[in-house]
Amino acid sequence: MRNSTLITFVFFLFASHVSSQAVVPDPCRADFSGTLGFLSSDWMEGREAGSKGSFMAADFILSQMLQMGLEPGAGTQASKQFFQNFGIIRYKSVKSEFALTDQSLKALSRRYFIPDVDFVIESGPSGFQFEAPVVFAGYGINAPREGYNDYGNINVNGCIVLVLDGFPGENDTSSIGWKKFGNDAMNEFHRLESKQRNAMENGALAMIVVSREGGKNMTEGKEVNKSIAQSAFVKAEEAGYEDYNYALPDDPYLIPVCRPRREAVAALLKDTGLDLKEAEKRISERLVPESLEIKGKKVYLAAEINAEPVLVRNVIGHIRGEDTTRSIVIGAHYDHLGMRYNHIYNGSDDNASGVSGMLAIAANWKRSGIRPPYNMIFAAWTAEEKGMLGSSRFMRDHPSGKQKILLNLNFDMISRSAPSDADAKVISIGFLRGTDHLKTMAVKYNGDLKKPFNLDIWETSGHGGSDYVPFAMEKIPVMSFFSGFHDDYHSPRDVYAKSDLVKMEYILILANKIILGFLSTNKF
Ligand SMILES: [Zn+2]
After folding, report:
1. Domains of the chain
2. Which residue has the higher pLDDT, 220 or 67?
């Protein structure tokens, strides 16, 4: 109670600079319905990053930015432009191998497992081939604060590590493991990338990840990809998921990961005395690492990768602020899934809605003639569906020393509602952990609406599934707007006719009030 009173008071003190509530008009349906309809039309052919349709969409977005009089927001100081052109790598594994050599056998022959049936390999865009001894490294976790390190007493240099997925005690909430690792903040440890980095730091060549018995991510060969898709709590069309992987050329190298099914794991551990189920149980109960070298066996892993560059572009405009060294970035991705099996994935909600909303806010600010206190950068990102590559490129190339970003406002899917939200009352907003003042602001402005939303507020520490992630990773405050998961997500049924323009208008009004509030109250 006291906190919010104080914050209101602070608001009041500073709310004089851009006292523009009356001057910057709120976006209305007419500002975005045309752009939304056109961006999600069949002409754009689903706007897959690098496709003809995506370039057409980029040209259209550019035409809108030019028409409203934005200045170019990409390029160098000497030559400013609206397009940020860059290459991404599209790659696919054309051959992957996982084999076992059992040195106790007289003939040292490799037993090859069957790709996509016995195992899958996930890797970056470069191929590899090696045969090496295997070391069991528990959960592959190093958590100094918790006093637990799977690599503490074992040498994995030049080896392939075998690790369990998840974290100690994940299946047993009464265990010591759960008590140490079970809360949210600790879940960083069980992210695959953290495990890959730990293994790399200790000199491992690759990682074999085994699903725990009864674990959530039971790995069954080809089922791996499917379960990843389904765990995204969506009913994606069968054809809707990617055969290709994508990366930025300067992505850091991560060691490859092999996910075997249980039969292959059993073959690997046969006669070694290691019982994963028992090891898992003991670790969760005692929290003492059980790492050990698996004697007498070697694993062969290889992958051949086909990779090709794809040219893509962000479209970035801006309104110059009084202080040109600081900016807020209002962004939304314009790419979607393209065409598959003769279906166009129009991606009206995902994310023509966010882009047309972003443009509507830009148009109203521009029309108001107000010079904001800081630069307002309006960005239409590409390749979000390929792994947030457009916003990542922007952040990696951003001259952070000269241009401080104060806030990233992200719109991703703002024109629909979840089936459970029949009255279309829910808006979900994600914040960077530790930015409670922004939450307070969102709650306040929502309360001011004629019909306030039910706010679904969540936090991110830098991971997640939309273009706020590259900002949050740099600890830049974010606000990510999302109106709810629906059954047409990532399907050809995500079309303009299904948009809820009334809800979207309210979301944009709320976002616009928050932007105004942020710009008028923040002193840095
Ligand atoms: Zn999407």
Report:
1. 2-88+310-521 (3.40.630.10), 90-306 (3.50.30.30)
2. 67
Ligand 1 center–CA 383 separation, angstroms: 10
Instruction: Return all residues near 113 (Cβ < 8 A) that are at least 6 apart.
Output: 98, 99, 100, 119, 260, 264
Q: Residue 335 C-alpha to ligand 1 middle, in angstroms?
A: 8
Q: What is the pLDDT of residue 412?
A: 96
Token pair for residue 52?
């003809």
> Would you say 256 and 200 are in contact if contact means Cβ atoms under 8 Å apart?
no
SS3 309: strand
Structure confidence at residue 185 (pLDDT): 54
**Distance from the alpha carbon of residue 351 to the mean position of ligand 1, in angstroms:** 7
- State the DSSP string of 81-144: ESEEEEEEEEEEEEEEEEEEEETTSSS--EEEPPBTTTEEEE--SS-EEEEEEEEE-TT--EEG
Output the CA 490–ligand 1 centroid distance in Å: 6
Beta carbons of 355 and 363 less than 8 angstroms apart: no
Q: How far is the CA of 385 from the centre of ligand 1 (A)?
A: 5
CA–centroid distance, 46 to ligand 1, in Å, is 11
Instruction: Indicate the pairing of strand 160-164 with strand 206-210.
Output: parallel
Nearest to 475 by CA among 522, 524, 406: 406
The two beta strands, 80-81 and 206-210, are unpaired
Question: What DSSP element (H or E) covers 57?
Answer: helix 52-68
Query: Which residues are in the CB-under-5-Å shell of ion ligand 1?
Result: 350
- Cα–ligand 1 centroid distance for 237 (angstroms): 13
Interval between CA 439 and ligand 1 midpoint (Å): 25
Please report where in the chains the tokens 């490859």 appear, as a residue. Answer: 256
Please give the pLDDT value at position 207: 97
CA of 368 to the centre of ligand 1 (A): 32
Cα separation, 69 vs 513, whole angstroms? 22
CA of 333 relative to ligand 1 center, distance in Å: 9
Q: Is pLDDT above 80 for 406?
A: yes
Expressed in angstroms and rounded, the spacing between residue 491 Cα and the centre of ligand 1 is 10
Stretch 132-145: mean pLDDT: 92
Q: How far does residue 518's CA lie from ligand 1's centre (Å)?
A: 28
- Would the pLDDT of 230 be above 80? no
Give the CA count within 13 Å in the CB-facing half-sphere of 351.
31
Higher pLDDT, 523 or 16: 523
What separation in Å is there between the alpha carbon of 133 and the centre of ligand 1? Answer: 40
Instruction: Please tell me the distance between residue 247's alpha carbon and the centre of ligand 1 in angstroms.
Output: 17
Interval between CA 228 and ligand 1 midpoint (Å)? 15
All residues at 6 or more sequence positions from 130 whose CB lies less than 8 Å from its CB, including other chains: 160, 205, 206, 300, 301, 302
